[in-house]
Amino acid sequence: MRICSIVLCLLLLTGCSKLTAVRNQPEYTVSVVLKALNSHYWLDMRSGMQQAAEELEIDLRLLYPSGELENEEQKALLEDALQTDTDLLLFAPCDSYDTQWVAARAQAEQIPVLTVDTRALDAYFPYIGSDNEQIGHLAADYLSDNLQPGTSVVVMAGSDRQASHIDRIQALQDALDPSITITAIVYTDMTQFAGYQTMKQMADQSFDAVFCANSVIGLGVATGLAETGRDIPVIAVDTQMDALQALQDGAMDALLSQDGYEIGYQAICTAVQTLRTGELPEDIQFTSELLEN
Fold first, then answer.
1. Cα 165 to Cα 161: distance, rounded to the nearest angstrom
2. What dihedral do alpha carbons 29, 34, 36, 37 form, nearest 10°?
3. What is the pLDDT of residues 68-123, one digit of tens each?
4. pTM beyond 0.85
5. 9 three-class SS
6. Rounded CA separation 124/152 (Å)
7. Mean pLDDT across the chain, nearest whole number?
8. Which residue spans within 95-139 are E strands per DSSP?
9. What single-letter DSSP state applies at residue 85?
10. How far is the C-alpha of 28 from the C-alpha of 19, rounded, in Å?
């Protein structure tokens, strides 16, 4: 009986050894540096990236600064990523005008680079994210259809150094009915409190609608307007859960879709395809839809 037990143990140990030996090693290591992880949008993007990385069996290293405006903090993270053993860098620039050094460093290290969510403006990297010009045009169409001639709009945005916000606002200005005026473009730290505080501060000013370049700002705007007793249209970008709930509740009038999960998932798939083919991709832009309550 004792001999049988010893043999059984040896067989079990042998089986464990074989199971360990056949585990797949990651095919590639992809380093990702986002702009933040402090909203549902970025959390959704991380989930999409993690899902794709698991399916494709790659090593995903994900880094992010404490906020979307923390460019110097992000630069330190980018430098760290480029100094580690990575096969590809994927990043969302906090400052679209401060990326040329990334191109130079990556070229020296022979590391391909892609951008996600926000494109660079002082260097070229393939871009995976929303078609921000289309978002601006959809917003302009909605406002043109729902406002009377002679009315005015306030634009609430994030950084004036991030291409995603720049492109949306420029397209809005280009496509908006000429009889409707943009009375102010307010750049903020992209927090809900910033949207709320700005609306409270502008309580005595005259405007007839607010366009928000993301829904985090939009949620704050909606709260601020409600507290001041103003019932005017609020349109924002992003279809994250809290924004969709606000649309359903009537706190917002329209949302322009932007799916962080899908963008993140496709960004990792594109990164792996780039490594497998050795060729940089063309830009991949996702179209948006207008959702109304």
1. 8
2. -40
3. 999 999 999 999 999 999 999 999 999 999 999 999 999 999 999 999 999 999 99
4. yes
5. helix
6. 36
7. 92
8. 113-116, 127-130
9. S
10. 22
